[in-house]
Fold this protein.
Amino acid sequence: MKHLKKALALTALMAAVNANAQTELTVYTAVEAEDLKKYAARFNEDHPDIKINWVRDSTGVITARLLAEKENPQADVVWGLAGTSLLLLKNEGMLTPYAPEGLEKLSPKFRDRDETPSWVGMDAWMAAVCVNTIEAEKNNLPMPTSWQDLTKPVYRGHVVMPNPNSSGTGFLDVSAWLQLMGEDKGWEFMDGLHQNISRYTHSGSKPCKMAASGETSIGVSFAFRGARLKEKGAPLELVFPEEGLGWEVEATAIVDGTDKLEAAQTLVDWSITRQAMEMYNEGYAIVAMPGVAQPVEHFPANAEALIIDNDFGWAASNREAILTEWARRYDGKSEAK
Amino acid sequence: MIQHTQGSRLEVRGVNKFFGEFCALKDINLTIEPGELVCFLGPSGCGKTTLLRIIAGLEQQSCGTLRQGDVDISQKPPRDRDFGIVFQSYALFPNMTVIDNVAYGLRSIGMPKARVRDRVDELLAVVGLEDHARKYPAQLSGGQQQRVALARALAPSPGLLLLDEPLSALDAKVRHHLRSEIRSLQKQLGVTTIMVTHDQEEALAMADRVVVMNNGVIEQVGTPLDIYQQPASAFVASFIGAMNFFDSAPVNGQRVRLGNRELDLVRPLPATPDGIRLAIRPEDVHLLPQGDGEWEGQVQAMDYLGAFIRTHVRLHGVELDLVVDVDPRSARQLELRVGGAVCLNLPSDALHCFAA
Amino acid sequence: MPSFHPGKTFMMDSSVPLTSPSRRAGALSELRQRVTGRWLFALLLVLGCAVLSLLVLAPLYTLLSKSVENKAGDFVGLDNFAHYLSSGGIESAFFNSLWVAGLSTLVVVGLAFMAAWALTRTRLPMTGWIRGVLVLPILAPSLLPAISLVYLFGNQGVLKSWLFGAEIYGPIGIIMGSCFWTFPHALMILLTAMDNADGRHYEAATALKASPWRTFWTVTVPGARYGLVSAAFVVFTLVITDFGVPKVIGGQFDVLATDIYKQVIGQQKFEMGAVVSVLLLLPAMLAFLADRYVQRKQSASFTARSVPYRPRRDHRRDVIGAVMLAPTILFILAIIGMAVYASFVTFWPYNLELSLNNYQFGRMDGGGWGAYTNSLQMALGTMVIGTLLVFFNAWLMERTPQPRLLTGVFQFLSLLPLAVPGLVLGLSYIFFFNHPDNPINGIYGTLFILILCTVSHFYAVSHLTAVTALKQLDQEFEAVGESLKASRWRVLFTVTLPLCLPAILDVALYLFVNAMTTVSAVVFLYGHDSQLASVAVLNMDEAGDIAPAAAMAILITTTCAAAKLIQGGLRFWVDRSTRAWRQGTE
């Protein structure tokens, strides 16, 4: 009897300890599924007491989901979502500003400009052009080196890019061109590019995937996807146009109303440690903490120099007008081939 | 040989039925005596099926009362009424054997197994399906299915048996046979029975009394003989059997004018300000040798219908067409032929008179 | 109201002013009677309506009401509509949606009718296997035909030349993909409508010296009329509301459904997504009304007196049947076969070495085997809950006395989910079930809400199948039961259920396989521990892992095929043990 009581007490105690030990965080993310296990494992090396429950989907779906859940948020933390999306959430009052430890070490481009930032950056996710070398050769296409190259008649019908109305990647390209070239020149460039586009896709990674499988010769997409496909054996060459590349910050934020604020803060703290930055660097050439990044295979060594000085505020406030103009110019016309 | 509770008396009082604006039944009053077989007869859409369904409780009357025996059943759901029903489609349960179909109602009321078996055997013997007890409905002929439906309806010994056009789906020979079978079974069991039919021959052959309906009203209730011989309205006269109609005008209380002649009537004239219609059944017309009759005419056509010949005659002077049924022997004696002349009498005791 | 005898189309209309005294009395007794006898069933159907309102109407309202609100939630009338219509492109999207859905409907209903005819009116051998092949598309996740169509007809496609220079990306791809996945839906409805033909009608036609061609047009087609209209309605609505196929293979060909995707996923503009959803409901509503109109005229065609039709031996007709089936079967096998091949290829089209590596889901991301088990649980739950709910409600509606108005409302609620794109339903579920004021918001993020959402999403076709089966039973069964003192419940369990068993098995399978393959709604609802295999397929494809995606798709398809085999086995067993009463032979 005594033994039994002792055993029960012990079990109860252990259960209590366990409960303390395992805080579960629901983390929404758009990070590639293949990286999630790694991210959680690295984090748990330092913080075994916090369990991450991932909910992952593409950027658009996760953003829509977060917004739809506004009345009763399910996520505690967002770890790995586009800065543009986080800006939307911030404007809806859905994020808790928090200045994590080591905030000062981040490049100012990679954090919310508020004094207590609503989000802090992880890495940059940059545009790239995926060129299928086999198809390019078959069609006698020279390797493009700049955005302007893509408007040359030789590429007519060989270029695929994401529709900015459906895809964040697509918008990132359009906004970068407008910033790089100025509004008039930018639209003029897109008019030329439009002549060569064989189709616009709804997904940002699709153009690169299509290039990888030979469905098109050239896909305007983003670097990370191209690099991964290349690793898997796709006959791709990644081109980083010399004028400059659009990019987007991937960032972390605490969702307002979480009842696990402490654990959430721990996670955000960790997400900008040097260790975390080195982890991001395994897949991304540019990370938020200057001086950490090592060259990554398939990425240009001077990645940092290639990306434009992206004005996210400008992009966000002009998004609606840009998309409307884009649809006016290219959506209607796309029917008449 | 088969025990059955006494059939019950059914009273229908002031029943009306509306479907929206449409009046399907208008002020129906009817009493059906215990053990009687009553046919509801009428053209399709006359309301006979609706009335049957109201009696069964499958349809709710808009107003009026129903009494079965001493019980007011007006508001009772079908389950609480005491009747068995056979539909035109039979609605046999196709997934059950003949035995299970017949036993269905017995099991519903929780009859002990052994008694169910006995009762089913008994009924199958009555309808002559002992050999088919374990078959499924789809394995039976139409007539056999009909009998199963009948046995199923009768199994719980209902006080009232309702038959909704039970024979219309069968071929003529089976129909004739089943007609007499149902009639004798019904007499033997003494179960009060209502049968809906549009077949006048069926109604006349089977019913104790016939209820002739048209446009939602009862035109006449009577024995088959009454209905045939003393039709209460022109509709009944024309719907039951064949009838010649002539437009006519009253002269005085017992005389009417037909063409340029006046005829005496045995039956009283209907009190109507308008014209009247004179009617006579084809078999009531007397054909006579030439020169003997009151009327002369010419044979237009002759249809040989086996037991009699339907002869179409045009009367001279009044230019009226008339159908006369004549037996073949008389026809030979009268030397009837198409185009030939003929004389005839319209016996006054056979003349009917209706308001036009 | 099954108690009216067939042929009568008039009904009790409570809106008619009751003027005459007799009618007023009639209304009173009608009321009393309703209270005593029929209230229970009416109440149960009201409950059914309430459940569907909770599962479909209320969530939808939370989303669609945004179409008349601005971002801040203020009422703005029709401003959003005006804005959307003025933004241009709408005409083309609307028109595109209509003609693509219309053409797909024509093709699918035509092919499905030919197939159903060949399966039920000829004596072709191996019809069991043929049926199996023909329903394969419904067993596959929607991405599978997309992958296959690209591999077959894309720029690197093995059959590219068959398109004569046209592109698979665009209307051709949408129509081919839509035809592939909607075909089994149409076939299922038509088979249910045509399986139980009354042999007497055919005997009558033969007796009247009708040629086979004339018999076809005067007996077969009219007999399947209701099924044809229902199938057309279902296919049209499925195609017009689906964004999966147009998104993946439609290129930039604009349709309304992808417009919702653009607004909601691309730009997070819920209010504009709601506007397009409302516009999308219009054609679906029209189709719904047309269906209702035809359905009113339907009455029982198969009674206990009917003789089940068995086609006589006729080689010429069998050959015609085979010819009618061949293109459909070939198309389906080509699509599935290509996907199977794709799942083994190392890197299409540049490294065609075959390997089994793509099937090692444990090593892959996107949920792996855990997602697969979740999917299984979800599908089983959907099957059990859905079949019970669908069949019970359909029975209440068809076989118990119900006020006309109530059945109309219920029919509308049952068919409504068909007109709602999955994406819209999924988002609606977030707004409704995740709301802090919703007392049952605890189910949000669990497997249970996935089950509820999936049941609602696939309610309409299940409902139509159940109703079609129930309509084919003799309308007088319940009346006979009543006269034999049997309650409607007893008739349900002893007659209706056994007779409808094949249809029930069909509904169960339909719900299971759709739950296994569905993506569009559940993508918004799964939680961290309820990831689904079908979503994993999408994610792997998104990540460029086409071969593993194809492999997972094949795994799902195989699971569904296994379910189909089990169901087929059960049906065979049911058929065998009921052959005597179905076919009239011992």
User: Anything to note?
Assistant: Chains A and B do not touch (no CB pair under 8 Å).
